[in-house]
Structures are given as C-alpha cells and as structure tokens.
Amino acid sequence: MGVEGCTKCIKYMLFFFNFIFWLAGGVILGVALWLRHDPQTSNLLEIKVDGTQAPSTFYISVHILIAVGAVMMVVGFLGCYGAIQESQCLLGTFFACLVILFACEVAAGIWGFMHKDTVSKEMINFYDSMYDKALTDAVTDKDKKQAAASALRVFHETLDCCGKGHVTSVLTAITDTFGVTSLCPKSGSMTNCHNRIEDLFSDKIYIIGIAALVVAVIMIFEMIFSMVLCCGIRNSPVY
After folding, report:
1. Rounded distance, CA 56 to CA 141, Å?
2. SS in 3 state form for the chain?
3. From 119, 156, 195, 223, which residue has the greatest number of CB atoms within 10 Å?
C-alpha cells in the first residue's frame, strides 16, 4: 500500500507536473539547438575578419540553455520516478535539484535582464567596424577589400539590409552603382542594419525569457508538491 487520500492526489499531480517539466526541458533543449544552428545567427556569428571574430556572448547563453534543457530532462525523470515509487530519498534529491535549478534560473534571469541589450550592441559595434573597414579598404587596398566586403555582404544578404542608417545606406548604394563597392544585398534593400540586428536578437531573447518564466512557475509548484508528498509518505501509517 502507498499513500491515500489527498496525498495520493498530490502524488499524481506531482507526476503530471514532472512530466510537463520533462517536456519543457525537451522543448528548451530543442529551442536552444535551433538557436545554435539557426542560419541567420550562424551566418553572422561565424564571421571572421582579419583575425577578429564576431562576439560570442549570444552563443555562450545558448550553450548554457542547452545544458539547462538537458539537466531539466534528467531531473524531470527523477521526479516522475520518485513520485510513482513514493521514495523519500528520490523526492528529497529531486527537491534539492529543483532548488539549485531555480536559484540558477533566477540568477540567470537577473543577469539577462541587466545585459539584455549587450548582444545587440556588441554585434552592432562589430558590424560598424566591418562596414568602416570595407569602405576604407575599397579605396586604399584592393586585397583587403575582398575580405572585408565579403564578410559585410554576409550581414547584408542574411538580414536584407544595407548601411548603418539612412545616409550610409544611400551612400553605399551610390558607391555600388559606380563600382567602387559591392556591398548592398541583391534585393536592393536599404533598410537600416542596426534595426535589423536589434530585431533579430531581441526576438530570440524574448523567446528565451518566456520559456524561462513558464519553467519557473512549474518549478514552484513542483517544489511545493514534492515536499507535501515527502511529508505525507513520512507520516503515512503504512511505512
């Protein structure tokens, strides 16, 4: 025999929430892998000009997210098994893992909120340096022109934009017309690249934030249910 009454109901509710938690871990892992291999971000973050690599802050965040998703799946399975087996040891271990994960998530959330614009700013600064180098090298050095211009075209083709602002977009279009440069995308778009970069990374950060919020709510319920179930098992007369 096992627990009875309300405690038995909590047991199955804990199993249900743990199953959702396990699924959420799988979703986060899948989203993180998608963010890691998304063609838009991959094309931009793998650019290298004259030994200078694109900022890796975004990839560091994604790799952490991959680790979190994998750990969540393991912890979710541990919680499901502990609830079904009514094991105080497994439930205690599960609760400790949840507390650690929750603390890490809160810390990561605070850090992410404080640095939410860092990724976009770093990428914009990297783009600006490449843009200036491409225009300078187009006039002064034919060999370097090819390297800088090729890297800049990856930005422009990937994001369908050209230039740091309206003035530079028009300037680049003019220099392309006269054959001095070849930088703007084939579509002829002259959209501000700064705005495109901000939109690209802001959208992905919001996805991460929403996923983290949903998981945090599930974790709170799981911590409550796991402690109640653990106390119910301990006080049950059949043990």
Report:
1. 29
2. CCCCCHHHHHHHHHHHHHHHHHHHHHHHHHHHHHHHHCHHHHHHHCCEECCEECCCHHHHHHHHHHHHHHHHHHHHHHHHHHHHHCCHHHHHHHHHHHHHHHHHHHHHHHHHHHCCCHHHHHHHHHHHHHHHHHHHHHHHCHHHHHHHHHHHHHHHHHHCCCCCCHHHHHHHHHHHHCCCCCCCCCCCCCCCHHHHHHHHHHHHHHHHHHHHHHHHHHHHHHHHHHHHHHHHHHHCCCC
3. 119
Number of domains in the chain: 2
Q: Is pTM, for the whole model, over 0.70? A: no
Question: What's the pLDDT tens digit per position in 167-208?
Answer: 777 877 787 777 667 778 877 777 888 888 888 777 777 777
∠ CA 69-206-191, nearest 5°, is: 130
98 domain-assigned: yes
Q: Which domain holds residue 172?
A: 120-194
Geometric angle at alpha carbon 95, from 70 and 218, rounded to 5°: 65
Instruction: Let me know whether 106 and 126 are in one domain.
Output: no
**pLDDT tens figures, 43-60:** 666 666 666 666 666 677
